[in-house]
Structure formats: structure tokens, C-alpha cells
Amino acid sequence: MRILHVAAELYPSVKTGGLGDVVAALPAALAARGEDVRLLLPGFPGFLAGIEGLETVCAVPAPAWAGEPVLQRGRVPGSGLVAYVLHAPALYDRPGHVYVSPDGRDWPDNHRRFALLGMAAAQVAAGLDPSWRPETVHAHDWHAALAPVYMATTDGAGVPSVLTIHNLAFQGLFPAHAFADLGLPIALFGMDGLEFWGRVSFMKGGLLFADRITTVSPTYAAEIVTPEHGMGLDGVLRARGSAVSGILNGVDYAVWDPAVDALLPAPYGPADLAGKARCKAALQVEMGLAADPDAFLLGAVTRLTGQKGFDLVLDAAPSLGGLGCQLAMLGSGEPALESGFARLARADGRRVAVRIGYDEALAHRIIAGADAMLVPSRFEPCGLTQLYAMRYGTPPIVRRTGGLADTVADARDAVGTGFLFDAIDPDAFLGAATRAALLRRDPARWEAVVRAGMSADFSWSRAAERYADLYRDIARPA
Ligand code: ADP
Ligand code: GLC
Predict the structure, then answer these.
(1) Domain holding 428: CATH number?
(2) Fewest C-beta atoms under 10 Å: which of 153, 254, 368, 404?
(3) Number of the ligand 1 atom closest to the C-alpha atom of 364
């Protein structure tokens, strides 16, 4: 089948989180099954530089505010997949973060930047590139969520659509006056349309118009239809009934496997963990921690937002020292969390090392060098960090929510791969950390948990099969 994936991120050219990893891996896994998959990406500098052999296909009809956008076509390095890049310098040619301006606020014209992406997707669905027309459009997150809306209301020519929610906390909410820029029928700015408490919601539009809605784990799919996790959209999601389902993400083991990871100081695998000990020693040196093989080294690689629950770790920090723990953290986000962890590091740099920022290579070295990885999320649609950690023999300590609940088995059980806690509470987190620290003093039992995680298989092929089934379910007869 011909499938067009529409997204704002694609590792390694543009990535702010797990979305970029998924958009790199899922289309490739579908192509490996024989599907004819292409991508549509906004013309961020990262894509103009990262997509190979870009050539112009045609102009893209668009409102005046978009300048004169052009559809370009090239190939994704590595996978060789065809990618369309929507070249619109007036909207996308900006340095730095793709969603946020240098003053720390979202770009003020984000509604235009991502409306254009949806418009272009609908036009590609309708045959903008005469040489290739998709049979399904698969949109990812709010950035692409207007694609199903334009496909159903203006262009699109009857092509079915799928919207995947990677994170319902980000909805693409804009002031009411932004609606005028979208070129949609005014009737759609109502309670049964894109209006959300007086504002415009891109995500809500996608949820209403996509033929199918998926999210990235079965547990999160069940959670988002409840008021507790629905972020105000649970009613809209409930109304879609069986059109909503959860398909667990996978891991790209070509990028995330300690046996082949060129970013590590030493490779290792389940049969020989000596390399992991070397990674730990190297990480302690690199981050200035005490060079102590017996310390229980906790790792964290994360966006520092309320979602991720690291305020619990901050509150629990005084007690972690008593458990013989060290902490190696890489993250960025909310200033209060950044400065809280930076303070801990200043107070005792032999025990706590913190790097504020985004560093792909250091992320790999922390996940490999740590003894256990912290993922104490308040909510987690899927979570990739815990999946990477398991493959790297670094049992994750996670809160039982969303994809974390679906992927980590508690070490209390026969095939345990990590440590779970339930309450959103520093003591509950400490309880799980204490169980982990204790178990580590029993090398045979600890290694059983390490090896169970390393041999767990979260490869993409299973998820790709589920998506392929979904595309066939909604296919329209030719
Ligand atoms: P989310 O997408 O919600 O941030 P995931 O666990 O799905 O959470 O994916 C996070 C991805 O982003 C992982 O690949 C992780 O290694 C990476 N990541 C997060 N923060 C950083 C950082 N500061 N530096 C490098 N990589 C990071
Ligand atoms: C989002 C979610 C994360 C998920 C990722 C990829 O960023 O927060 O849980 O793993 O998307 O689907």
C-alpha cells in the first residue's frame, strides 16, 4: 500500500523527543514489510540539510501568509525512503528549536506553520505529485493533525487517514482569531469542530476527522478516555469509540543496541557484561562522579517537565545518598527543575552530576553506564527511554502508567525487568529505588533482571504489522 507519514520530527535531522525516533523507525519497518511509504516534513533547516538529493516537484497552492511554498522530494539517508519536504522559508527557515523561539515562547505563528503542513498533506493525498498518490495518510501528533481535517473538508479526495497521538498534553491550542488563517469553513469553529474552550485545537480537529486514532501503548489508549488523563479531550475520544486503539512503539535496535553502538566506550551484550562495567567507569570519570564501581549509579535522560515526574526524584534526593546512589542526569526543560538538580550537583558533585542540555551521544553513554534508569513519569504515552535502558542492561525504575506499565515487569515477578511504583509520591519512588538498591547486592538475582531486560524484544516488526492491518481495514476500494 502507498502510505504517506506526516510529521514534524525525524531522527537524526530533527528530534525533540521520542516522536523523532518513531518517525525514523516506523516507516522503515513498514517499508521492510513491502509497503510503499513516503514522508512529508516541514522545511526546517534540519530537513533541508538532512534529506538527500532534494529536487523541486511543484509549487504548493497556499494562503498568502505562507509565501510561495514549494514541494521538494528527496531521500532519507540510511533508510532511502522518499521524503517530501515542504519548502516555505517564510515559516520554517529559522535557527534553533523547531517549535520555540529564542525568547522561550512558542513561535507566534505556529498555527500557520503547522496548518500549512496539513494543507500540503491533503494536496499530496489529492495528487499534487502526479507520480505518486497515497492510499492512506498517517499523521503524527498535533503538528500534523489538521491533515485529516483538510482531507475531509477541502482536498484529500476520499483518501482515509490515521492520526497517532504521541502525547495528548501537546494539543496545538491557539487563540480564536487564528482560525481565520486556516481557510476552513467557519461552521468548523464550534463545539462540534475545532473550538476548545474558546480556542482553536488542532488535536481536536484531527480526533474528529481522522478515520482511525491510535496512540502509542494499549494502557495509554485506555487512560486517555478518562477525565484523569484525557486532557479535556476524553469526551471527544470516547465518542470515537472503537476507532481509538493503542499500538505499542518499538525500538530501532540498529541505533539502540550496546553490541553495535559506536557511541559507547566499550561494546557489550548479555553474554558478556564486562563492557558495561567499563561504560560505567568511563561515565563516572566523564561526569566527575566518584570512581566507585560499587556505587549504585542511577541514570536519567529526560525532558524536565511535569510529565516526567523528576520533582519526585528531587524531593527524594536526600535519602538516595543513604542508599549508596549516584545520579548522572542529562535533561532540559523547566527552569525550576533544571536549577534544582544543578543545586544538588553543586552541593555534592561526587554523587550527583547534571548536564543541562540536549546531547544524543551522552544520552547513549548514560543509558549504558548507569546501573538503573529513572523514568518516574506522571503519565507516559509509551516511553522509549525504559525500552532502551532494558536493552542496555540498565533496569528501569518506573511509575506504573501508560506504556511504562505495558513494557516493564517488576523484579518481584519471575521474568522481572525493572522496578515499578504506583503513587505519585517521593516515598513511593524511594520504595522502588530501595528495592532496586537491595537487589543489586545479590549479583545473581540482579543479573537475572539485567539479562531478562536485555533479551526482551520490542522490535518494530510487530507494531508495523498492526499498523499495516489498520491501513487495510480503512482502505477504500479503488
Ligand atoms: P518523550 O518523547 O516524552 O520525551 P520518550 O521516552 O518517548 O519520551 O523519548 C525520549 C527520547 O528523547 C529518547 O530517545 C531520549 O534518549 C531522548 N532525550 C530526551 N532528553 C534528551 C536530552 N536531554 N538529550 C538527548 N536525548 C534526550
Ligand atoms: C511522546 C511521549 C512518549 C512516547 C513518544 C513516542 O513524546 O511523551 O511517551 O514514547 O511520544 O511515541
Answers:
(1) 3.40.50.2000
(2) 254
(3) 16
Residue nearest to atom 4 of ligand 1 (CA): 17
Are residues 179 and 292 located together in one domain of the fold? no
For 328, residues 6+ apart whose C-beta sits below 8 A from its C-beta are 283, 287, 289, 297, 298, 299, 300, 353, 366, 369, 370
Are 343 and 205 within one domain?
no
Is residue 260 situated within a structural domain?
no
Ligand nearest the Cα atom of residue 385: 1
Domain count, the chain: 2
Query: Strand, coil or helix: what is 39?
Result: strand
Could you give the 3-state DSSP secondary structure of residue 406?
helix
pLDDT bucket at 156, cuts 50 / 70 / 90: confident
269 lines ligand 1 (CB under 6 A): no
- 229-248 pLDDT tens trace: 999 999 999 999 999 999 99
Q: Judge whether 86 lies within some domain.
A: yes
Q: Is residue 162 part of a domain?
A: yes
Domain ranges, residue 434: 274-457
296-325 tens-digit pLDDT:
999 999 999 999 999 999 999 999 988 999
- The predicted pLDDT at position 401 comes to 98
